[in-house]
Design a protein that fits this description.
This protein has strands at 12-13, 17-19, 25-27, 35-36, 47-50, 53-56. With 74 residues, it is an all-beta fold.
Length: 74
């Protein structure tokens, strides 16, 4: 797993998080509410913490590939 870095073009800051009293950041996107320390990723592996902010690490990347045709005969 690579380190999180804002210099990566696929890494952009997000808006849906807030800081906790213990220094962690809480992601507010899903019900899991991941509490992240520096360099840590959420359960989804899509968001992570770097430079005291939560960042999206998959911006501009495809979320899945499928070789099957869209319409298949039974």
């Amino acid at each position: 797993m690579s380190e999180l870095s804002l210099s990566d073009p696929h890494t952009i800051p997000t808006d849906w998080w807030h800081a906790l009293d213990d220094g962690r950041l809480q992601c507010d996107v899903c019900p899991r509410a991941c509490k992240l320390r520096e360099g840590q990723r959420g359960v989804c592996f899509v968001r992570g913490r770097t430079d005291d902010q939560v960042v999206l690490t998959t911006y501009g990347r495809s979320s899945g590939f499928c070789v099957d045709p869209i319409e298949k005969k039974p």
